[in-house]
Amino acid sequence: MSLVFDPFPLAGTTLANRVVMAPMTRSRADAESRTPTELTAVY
User: Fold this and answer.
1) What is the pTM of this model?
2) In which element (H, E) is residue 10 found?
3) pLDDT-based confidence at 43, cuts 50/70/90?
């Protein structure tokens, strides 16, 4: 019995399955203030 493809409740929402993917980029924010930089606007 596999639960991988069964719906999964998480934090008030229901995911269609348990297959997820992490973001494929790094955070583009200033390390000190944690706000977006000019690079974010260009990107």
Assistant:
1) 0.43
2) strand 8-10
3) low
Six-digit token string for 6: 């069964």
Q: Characterise 8 by phi-psi region: left (phi > 0), alpha (psi -120 to 50), beta (else).
A: beta
Q: Which of 17, 15, 14 is nearest to 6 (CA)?
A: 17
What are phi and psi for residue 15, nearest 5 degrees?
-85, 145
CA distances from 4 to 12, 18, 42 (A): 19, 5, 39
Q: Report the 3 state secondary structure along 11-32.
A: CCEEECCCCCCCCCCCCCECCC
The answer to whether the CB of 28 falls within 8 A of the CB of 36 is: yes
